[in-house]
């Protein structure tokens, strides 16, 4: 399938009016398949969708983009994931197309479009559901122990003390996977220093790792670990195989900081718990911090970008416009996703859990800033050492000061 896509890519002259589109090949790809089928009914230039298995996607895309027959359109995570292609002049700058077209300009939540941009320029159009990181909790444990859902850092510390005294791990954490630990640093830096600190890092200012807010966030992480917030064995707990979610649904952990997909994960593993006992909230405020308490971190969504070498730029943009349609948004809702379109709010009553979907949508809609997950926002040459250093910080193998120094030194 991948070879078929490469052979039919935008470098060939005999494609008979075909736009090839690489997409991440998972369960949700059926929604993109339906959208392509609908678009092709009326367009002279046809879109050919090439699903690439998830584990192979990044490498397959990279090798295809370096060949004469790269895809015309491709799925990505925005920001750092597309920066190498932008730097190589391989992306269509969509800024004017979006700003001059009412469908694209008004079709999506602004914070989502901004999160996928680079240096203020738009290179991607949202094409899947939003995935903010949320504070999930076990409602029964909170009620039994008379604990309020934490809104401030002081509330959170009280909750940690109470749950520990009852032999309950305050927070489930899949430390063996590393990336769940990153969510703590992302929110803490936002709450303490605001979104601009990481924005500078994302834009290539390595010295911004030396911002006092980064050190304070790292120190707060160490304090949480030392206070037993994650228990003693979090380094051997995973997320991918269900370790951390199981701690929450079995009542062994009270809370879990995780992407919004935690709801569907719990629905699959423990449906009764998901429907009756799973609660969710915003990340708490931090005293003295300058970040807006409504700010969100996570994966805003996935995006379609267009190869600058395509012969059918106008038709590619026309296809991207269909992502703002009501029928496409409805298909996402029916699949349990929360669309990033401006018109999504009215559709969420048909979601598998309307309350969760609505809360999630409003959380993102009201967010002054939506910071993309650091490991997606940064190029892999920075993201890989970042995950290593985060893991060392949580495991007590490095100090907050050593974490800062190590990240400033990454070239």
UniProtKB/TrEMBL annotation:
Top-rank taxon: Bacteria
SUPFAM superfamilies: Periplasmic binding protein-like II (SSF53850)
Alphabetized InterPro entries for the sequence: Bact_solute-bd_prot1, SBP
Protein name: Extracellular solute-binding protein
